[in-house]
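FORM 7B: Structural annotation worksheet

SECTION A. Query
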Amino acid sequence: MDRLAADRMFIAVMETGSFAAAARRQGTSAGQASKLVSALESELGTRLLNRTTRALAPTELGQSYFAQIRNIIGDLDALDLSLHEAGEAPRGKLRLSAPISLGTMELARALNGFAAAYPGIELDVAFSDRFVNLVDEGFDAAIRVGNPVDSSLVARKLGEVRIVVVAAPEYLAKHGGPQTPAELSGHDCILDTNLREPAHWRFTETVVVVTGRLRYSNARACLMAAEDGLGIARIPHFAARDALAEGRVVPLLERFEPPPGGIYALYPAGRHLPRKVRLLIDYLAKDLEATG
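SECTION B. Predicted structure
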């Protein structure tokens, strides 16, 4: 038995929750994954997993072994990686997930700059508003907006994003503008369904429930609807920046604007952070700081 391979498979099973998912991550079959874990149990002389037709659950000893072996394998991988990376230019594939609007409108330029600075890195970026599972889906890191909620991930704050309320001058000329958040109830609001609570608009001291006939899952689409005079939109400032500067929309309720939200880089906890990932996160942080 390849003890190291068996230990890695056991860790994968524990992290993914099934033999099938662990096998996909390790590039083998579910049957081989089960055999490796069974061989490990025989080697240790104890059961690590309780198996049923529907689920897997670690035994008490299995949970204890997992907590320790994951750190040991992580240290070993970190040692191997540090030796390989010493004195070498960063190289290899780097998979990143980023939100569509933030990624395409704010991060793409920085990602291109990073790609030019590090030609040995193959950058594979998925622009998606879906919350991907970094471990199961093979991502090295993810960029997300808002307070992190997954305790299994390490979060590093890269910057902040303001959320602003805007409308076109034509809309305001026809309908007037709200002077307080409460007055939004009398307006047609454009809802960004990418936000966790699209109809709950948060301000400094209140939350207002708004209504509207347009619901778009993209900040750019919400902005375009506002520009066309179809209602009032609440979107990230980076999405509205050019339209505000050119007067296509104007800001509303500025004195009620809530504190900005955070932009975070997330990566799996308990593992050595590869140099190429650390370099990308540092690069994005510097770029966001420079652009404000």
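SECTION C. Observations
The mean pLDDT is 91. Residues 192 and 216 are 5 Å apart (CA to CA).

SECTION D. Sign-off
Analyst initials: ____
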